[in-house]
Write a structure and sequence with these properties.
The protein is of the alpha+beta class. 41% of the residues lie in helices and 13% in strands.
Length: 306
C-alpha cells in the first residue's frame, strides 16, 4: 500500500471508524466531530496510514464530510476541510426517516469516481500531480445530495408494483444534476445550504484533548498575515446580524431550540447533550426513576419600592 498511497482515494464512514473503538462523538457539534476525527487519525497507526492517502474522505451520515488531503504547503503536512449543513448534525437526516437501507456510501464513492474520471479526461500531466490536484468539492456536495435522496425516497414508492432494486438511475440523476447546479454558487442563505471551511490541522493535531476554545465561527474571523493567522473581533459578525438578520450567519454551524438561535459552540453542545439524554429516556420507555435537571442562574435582585 505504501507504494501507491499517494495515488489512493479512500472513502469511509464515521461509523466504520467507530467500530474500531474510536471515540468520535456524534450529534454534538461539527467542531467536536472534526476534533475527535482528527485525534483518531493521529492516534491510531493503521488509520493514520489511510489518512496519509492522496485523499481521505470521512462521511458523517448524509449530513457532512471531512475531506483530508496532503497539503501543497511545505510547513503543513495535511489539509482538512469539513463540509456540513450548518443547522444540522450527524444523524439528523436519518432521524427524519423511518427505517434504513444499504448503499449510502456507494453514493459518495460514485460521485468521487465521477469527479476523478472527469478530471482525468482533461489533465495532461503525471498521475501523481493529477491525484493531488483533484478538487472534490462538487463531488462531496453531489454525493451528500444523493445520500439524502436515498434516505428520503428509499428504493422508490411501493404501489401495485414493487421497486426493481437499487435506484441507480435516480441517484445518478441526482449526482449529475447537483454538479450542474454547483457551477453557479448559490447566493441565498437557506438553512439547507452546504457550508465548508478549512481546519487548522496542525493546531488540532497537537491538542491532547478536545478543546471548546476552537470554533468554526471564531476561526472564520481570522486573516493570514506575515506572522500567521491573526484574529478579527467577532463584533463584525454581530454587526452583520444587526443589519441583515440571522441569514448573515446561517453559513456557520448553528442550532435552534424553540426561540433560541445560537452559533456558540458551548451552548450548542450543552443543549444537544440534554436533547440526547431526553431522547434516550423517551425511546427507552422511561423508567421508575424520573429524569431530573437542575437549572441554575444568578439571583434576581429584589425590586426597590418607590
Amino acid at each position: 500500500m505504501a507504494k501507491y498511497r499517494d495515488k489512493l482515494i479512500t472513502v469511509v464512514s464515521a461509523n466504520d471508524l467507530r467500530t474500531g473503538s474510536f471515540g468520535i462523538s456524534q450529534g454534538l457539534s461539527w467542531e467536536r466531530t472534526v476534533e475527535d476525527t482528527v485525534a483518531a487519525l493521529n492516534a491510531e497507526p493503521y488509520v493514520s496510514q489511510l489518512a496519509g492517502c492522496g485523499h481521505f474522505l470521512v462521511t458523517f451520515s448524509s449530513d457532512g464530510v471531512l475531506w483530508v488531503r496532503k497539503s501543497s504547503r511545505e510547513q503543513v503536512a495535511r489539509e482538512a476541510r469539513p463540509f456540513f449543513y450548518p443547522s444540522s448534525f450527524e444523524g439528523q437526516s436519518a432521524e427524519q426517516c423511518d427505517g434504513s437501507m444499504f448503499g449510502y456510501l456507494s453514493c459518495m464513492v460514485t460521485a468521487v469516481a465521477s469527479e476523478s474520471a472527469s478530471t482525468i479526461q482533461k489533465w495532461p500531466r503525471s498521475d501523481s500531480e493529477l491525484v493531488h490536484s483533484i478538487d472534490f468539492s462538487d463531488a462531496i456536495a453531489s454525493g451528500l445530495a444523493a445520500m439524502r435522496d436515498l434516505y428520503a425516497n428509499g428504493h422508490g414508492q411501493v404501489d401495485s408494483e414493487l421497486p426493481l432494486g437499487f435506484p441507480v438511475d435516480r441517484l445518478a440523476h441526482v449526482i449529475t444534476k447537483t454538479r450542474v447546479k454547483l457551477v453557479t454558487p448559490r447566493k441565498d442563505n437557506t438553512p439547507d445550504q452546504l457550508s465548508r471551511c478549512w481546519v487548522p490541522w496542525e493546531e488540532l493535531s497537537q491538542s491532547k484533548t478536545p478543546s471548546s476554545d476552537w470554533s468554526i465561527a471564531v476561526h472564520s474571523q481570522h486573516v493570514t498575515g506575515q506572522s500567521g493567522r491573526k484574529p478579527i473581533p467577532m463584533s463584525g459578525l454581530a454587526q452583520l446580524v444587526v443589519f441583515r438578520g440571522k441569514r448573515a450567519i446561517r453559513h456557520l454551524p448553528n442550532a435552534t431550540f424553540g426561540d433560541l438561535f445560537t452559533i456558540d459552540r458551548n451552548e450548542i453542545e450543552t443543549l444537544r447533550t440534554l436533547r440526547k439524554l431526553m431522547k434516550s429516556y423517551r425511546d427507552n420507555g422511561g423508567s421508575d426513576k424520573p429524569l431530573s435537571f437542575g437549572v441554575f442562574a444568578p439571583p434576581v435582585p429584589a425590586s426597590r419600592s418607590a
